[in-house]
Design brief:
Elements: H1 2-5, H2 14-26, H3 43-60, H4 63-69, E1 71-73, E2 87-89, H5 96-111, H6 120-139, H7 152-168, H8 187-207, H9 209-213, H10 217-221, H11 236-242, H12 245-255, H13 262-272, H14 276-280, E3 287-290, E4 293-300, E5 305-311, H15 314-334, H16 342-345, H17 366-380, H18 390-401, H19 406-413, H20 418-422, H21 429-436, E6 440-442, E7 452-454, H22 462-465, E8 477-479, E9 482-484, H23 487-490, E10 507-510, H24 514-529, H25 534-560, H26 564-569, H27 581-584, E11 586-587, H28 589-595, H29 614-618
Antiparallel strand pairs: 1-2, 3-4, 4-5, 6-7, 6-10, 8-9, 9-10, 10-11
Helix pairs in contact: 5-6, 6-8, 12-17, 13-15, 24-25, 25-28
């Protein structure tokens, strides 16, 4: 009874408990551990006995006992998945040689430092084992109970059977669902069976258990890879339909009659690109203005980033604040008009469920959101199968089109690495061209150092376009500290300027060259500090002054575009760096020199273009 009270489950009335005790006394029951719940006529008695037995099972049985009995308790490993029982039944796998490696595999998952947040990996590997077991029971010699007679051909037949079931729309052979029903084979479920079935058999091979039981290696190697799953972003017409005001009102009126926040959830997913679970689990005080900016605070539990903030538009802030007031009103109605205390308010859910939730801490389930959203899509009849997660792909693609890098997208969406972010970014050739053709500037040796060459937002004047080739992303070659845009050289011809790039007006700089020029500046400063007299030091400062102003302007330009940190982190130029925005962002040195000369430099008034010194003129 104490364990029951700790969980947000159905209420046990005192009369139910008393009647159960009376019934046990009449039946002379010594212990609930071995009692068959079906002997009771009343349904609530059966549920109570089953829940008590589940709680007692974790005490009466050790993990080794569950290995023999054909089930596993996640709480034996300190894990309790949300909205799930600790009991995982493995008796649907009839072959002991397959059930035992499955138990070991699940135990390794639960003991892992990267234990999953949900029960999906456990459910999928259990389904894979149940489906393979059901197939072997009917198609393999002796029901597949002797692993030494199994060969690769049996797995080939299993694969063909599962693919045919997917094509014909049939159900699985094995009963892997908790309610005992057989689910329909879909593309995604078939892929998961292959992936997790392969991981299960490979784990048995690596641990040596396959060799001990005599399982043929060809049987394990024949299990195919299901492959990853990647979703496309919403097409433009679908995205417009899912954000249309009339359709959104239809979602709220038709599929959320009690106003629990279905539309608010979907609009938050559209605007922020958060995962659906991250939005559903929002806390009451998740929005507010900080330094004048509206921010949304949420937990990115998938990557372990808790209490992260993203900026949101004002209209979404207003909508979520309205939802917060509705949640507070609903809480007061359930507690005789009493508002929550400060301690209670800190744990309130923004979208609380009405079921077994007196303290308001439990949020609505993803199943509730998905059911309403799926039915809404069916009524809209958009001509395809779409899910809410595709809004995340759509936002990532649009961020890329507006110049964001994979690093920026990863940080905003809460991904582990750039490789993870690539799954959400769908490149087209036009997108890649836009990324590569951002901003370029001329080098410090030109007549106008730092002059802007190209930009996808600001049109160029006729004077600016004369020295600029039509497509710099393809009409330039790397040079020391920058890029050469002189067409004969780009086309493979010899340089007519004796490779004097730094004094050439065809030489341009990009953000990837910042560290190179910073090192040059430090070298000249060291030379000036080590000069034998002040005259020599002054001469060195004057000689490097145009380049120094161009470097200062490059730093300011990169800072204005938010690329300064990326440029400072890009120490070596690698082929893959050419696709980074830092590389594709280049500036004409004349504009950089102007930007870097807001404050008059110490030697800027001594450097003239009409001097008598030929070396000074070249500089």
């Amino acid at each position: 009874m104490y364990a029951h009270g700790l969980q947000p489950v159905a209420v046990w009335h005192l009369t139910w408990v008393q009647s159960l005790a009376d019934e046990c006394q009449r039946r002379d029951v010594a212990s609930l551990a071995g009692l068959d719940a079906s002997v009771f006529r009343r349904a609530y008695h059966q549920r109570m006995v089953q829940e008590m037995q589940q709680a007692l099972r974790k005490i009466y049985f050790a993990p080794s006992d569950t290995w023999d009995a054909g089930y596993i308790e996640t709480e034996h490993f300190g894990v309790r998945f949300p909205h799930r029982s600790s009991y995982v039944d493995l008796t649907c796998i009839t072959q002991r040689w397959l059930r035992n490696p499955l138990w070991d595999h699940i135990a390794d998952v639960l003991r892992s430092p990267t234990c999953p947040r949900s029960a999906q990996p456990v459910d999928f590997v259990r389904r894979a084992g149940a489906e393979l077991s059901a197939f072997l029971e009917t198609e393999a010699p002796g029901g597949g109970h002797d692993p030494s007679v199994l060969r690769g051909e049996h797995v080939h037949r299993f694969v063909a059977d599962l693919r045919n079931r997917e094509r014909l729309g049939l159900a699985f052979r094995g009963q892997a669902r908790l309610d005992g029903k057989r689910a329909k084979v879909t593309e995604n479920s078939r892929r998961m069976v292959f992936n997790y079935g392969r991981a299960l058999l490979r784990g048995a091979l690596d641990s040596g258990s396959a060799e001990r039981i005599g399982l043929d290696r060809a049987f394990i190697a024949a299990m195919p890879v299901g492959g990853p799953r990647s979703r496309n972003p919403f097409p433009d017409e679908v995205a417009q339909a899912l954000a249309d005001e009339a359709n959104l009102q239809q979602l709220a009126d038709g599929y959320d009659p009690h106003d629990r926040g279905l539309r608010d959830m979907w609009e938050t997913i559209i605007v922020t690109g958060r995962r659906a679970s991250e939005v559903i689990q929002l806390r009451l005080d998740c929005v507010g203005r900080y330094g004048g900016l509206p921010l949304l605070w949420h937990d990115q539990t998938k990557v372990g980033n808790l209490n992260a903030a993203v900026r949101i538009p004002d209209h979404l802030l207003n909508r979520l604040e309205e939802r917060r007031q509705k949640t507070l009103t609903h809480y007061a109605d359930r507690h005789a008009g009493r508002p929550p205390t400060a301690a209670e308010r800190a744990h309130l859910a923004l979208f609380p469920t009405d079921i077994l939730n007196p303290d308001g801490r439990r949020a609505l389930s993803y199943t509730w959101f998905h059911t309403g959203f799926r039915n809404w899509l069916a009524e809209l009849d958009l001509g395809g199968h779409y899910v809410a997660h595709q809004a995340r792909h759509t936002l990532a693609t649009r961020l890329l089109r507006h110049g964001a890098t994979l690093t920026h997208i990863r940080c905003y969406l809460g991904q582990v690495s750039d490789r993870m972010a690539e799954h959400y970014v769908h490149l087209t050739q036009s997108d890649l061209d836009n990324v590569l053709q951002h901003v370029w500037v001329t080098g410090p040796g030109t007549a106008h150092p730092g002059e802007l060459l190209t930009s996808d937002t600001t049109p160029l004047t006729r004077e600016q376009t004369r020295p600029c080739p039509s497509d710099l992303s393809r009409r330039s070659i790397p040079a020391e500290g920058g890029f050469c845009t002189f067409q004969p050289v780009v086309n493979g011809g010899a340089c007519p300027f004796n490779l004097d790039c730094h004094n050439c007006d065809k030489f341009v700089l990009s953000g990837a060259d910042l560290l190179y020029w910073r090192r040059k500046r430090e070298q000249w400063r060291l030379l000036a500090e080590g000069a034998p007299d002040d005259a020599t030091a002054d001469y060195l400062h004057r000689y490097f002054e145009p380049t120094a102003r161009a470097i200062d302007g490059l730093e300011k330009a990169l800072a204005g575009l938010g690329l300064l940190d990326d440029a400072l982190a890009l120490d070596l130029r690698k082929p893959q760096d050419y696709f980074h925005r830092v590389w594709s962002t280049a500036f004409r040195a004349a504009d950089l020199a102007d930007a870097g000369s807001d404050e008059s430099a110490e030697y800027s008034n001594t450097c003239t273009a009409d001097g008598d010194d030929p070396e000074q003129d070249a500089a």
